[in-house]
């Protein structure tokens, strides 16, 4: 079976970048979608299933994506063009909403009567310091996540944690790349 090309895709379907939906050209019906077990939407074309996010990339750019097509709003069913971006495997893993098993903010744990914060960067765990409240530790994590993960960072504030303390930078750590 030949690989699907952008030209062949455009012969069979139209893609609406504002809604993220594909429509068959042959009979003008909305395409039949299926969600896989992880929640990604798939479309069957010539006997093979494709993720619609990857098809949208192919349709809009003319090339298959080089990496992972990430959903910026973390909704795997939202294939609007504005919501899609290329990501590495590591960047895509930063952009996940994992709930803490202990109910604490992301990157925060209780340690000898204080609240500590850490973040993982390139496989290393970076200690951000000890704080008086979990909100202060969460704020330190948020700043470090923004610094290291940029637009792919998921902040504690997005997960319901709000910091009462404005935190400009995590504790300065020479050699770690943080502003002093």
Oligomer description: single chain
Global geometry: elongated
CATH class of the largest domain: Alpha Beta
DSSP E strands, number: 10
- The assigned CATH architecture of the largest domain is Alpha-Beta Complex
User: What's the story with the biggest beta sheet?
Assistant: 3 strands, antiparallel
Tally of structural domains = 2
Kindly estimate the percentage of residues that lie in beta strands according to DSSP.
25-35%
Mean pLDDT over the residues: 77
List the strand order in the largest sheet.
Answer: 3-4-5
Element order, helices and strands?
HEEEEEHEEHEEEH
Proportion of helical residues = 10-25%
Question: How is the CATH topology of the largest domain named?
Answer: Homing Intron 3 (I-Ppo) Encoded Endonuclease, Chain A
Characteristic terms for this protein:
single chain, 180 residues, alpha+beta, Homing Intron 3 (I-Ppo) Encoded Endonuclease, Chain A, GCC-box Binding Domain, three-stranded antiparallel β-sheet, disordered C terminus
Can you describe what's shown?
The protein is an alpha+beta fold and 180 residues long. It has four helices and ten strands; from the N terminus they run H-E-E-E-E-E-H-E-E-H-E-E-E-H. The strands form four sheets. The chain has a three-stranded antiparallel beta sheet. The protein is elongated and about 65 Å long. Mean pLDDT is 77; it is low at 161-180.
């Amino acid at each position: 079976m030949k690989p699907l090309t952008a030209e062949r895709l455009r012969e069979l379907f139209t893609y609406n970048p504002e809604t993220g939906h594909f429509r068959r050209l042959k009979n003008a019906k909305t395409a039949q979608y299926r969600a896989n077990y992880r929640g990604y939407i798939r479309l069957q074309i010539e006997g093979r299933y494709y993720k619609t996010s990857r098809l949208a990339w192919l349709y809009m750019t003319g090339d298959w994506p080089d990496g992972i097509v990430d959903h910026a709003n973390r909704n795997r069913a939202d294939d609007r063009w504005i919501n899609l971006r290329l990501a590495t495997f590591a960047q895509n893993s930063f952009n996940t909403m994992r709930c803490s098993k202990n109910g604490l903010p992301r990157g925060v744990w209780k340690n000898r009567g204080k609240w500590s914060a850490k973040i993982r960067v390139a496989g290393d765990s970076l200690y951000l310091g000890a704080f008086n409240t979990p909100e202060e530790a969460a704020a330190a994590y948020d700043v470090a996540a923004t610094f290291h993960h940029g637009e792919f960072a998921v902040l504690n504030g997005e997960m319901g944690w709000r910091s009462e303390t404005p935190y400009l930078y995590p504790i300065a750590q020479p050699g770690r790349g943080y502003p002093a």
